[in-house]
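Bug #2210: token dump truncated for glutaminase?
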Amino acid sequence: MAVGVLALQGSFNEHIAALRRLGVKGVQIRKPEQLHSVTSLIIPGGESTTMAKLAEYHNLFPALREFVKLGKPVWGTCAGLIFLADKASGQKTGGQELIGGLDCTVHRNFFGSQLQSFEAELSVPEIAAKEGGPPTFRGVFIRAPAILDVGSDVEVLADICIQSDKTSDLDSALESQKESTTSEKKVIVAVKQGNLLATAFHPELTADTRWHSFFLKMASEVGDEASRSASTSQEDLSFYKQPRNDLPIFQ
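Reproduced locally. Full output below:
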């Protein structure tokens, strides 16, 4: 199995190294035609505005959107989560182009600046159930986004409790959630929707490869379903004889 890793900017080498530890080859993707050589894709963390400009320069957005629409597995970490979201707030002036496909709204710099980066133990029952290991995962949050809301088809895989006063400088989307300056609120930081996986943190910066293993199994399952579907379609439609056109501890 070869997994594509968008290699425009950010921590793509770290993802490739994590895949290598699992015996899987990571293929650097920089041009639209390179997506044809892979059946799954990781969009790494980095500076989302810079990545968006580079993706636009290389005319990658149409190919990336098509990749998602075809149901191919895509995992976005940090900036990659922003790319996959249908909506994003907290954008710089003029915003940035998104791939979309993930039914959620993301706040771009929810946890603050680079200096406010942190690590936190996250409860990950779904990951632990499928990949084994401890029930928690140490999430590395670097100038991290967060998910403000999700659609009904989105499965929440991890969240983090924060003090409501941490959100005092954010947009009005969270104002209605505040009850007092000392109350705790859960903020979503990892989700799954069909072929899409997204994390606000950086699993590739840890020695724990369970998220990568989880994604590889997602890719394998989607591939098996696609093969079965293609086989069934070929049997059902063969009589037509027509040619087919074939992403510090938090206190």
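Output looks complete on our side. The chain has one domain: 2-237. Marking as cannot-reproduce; reopen if the truncation happens again.
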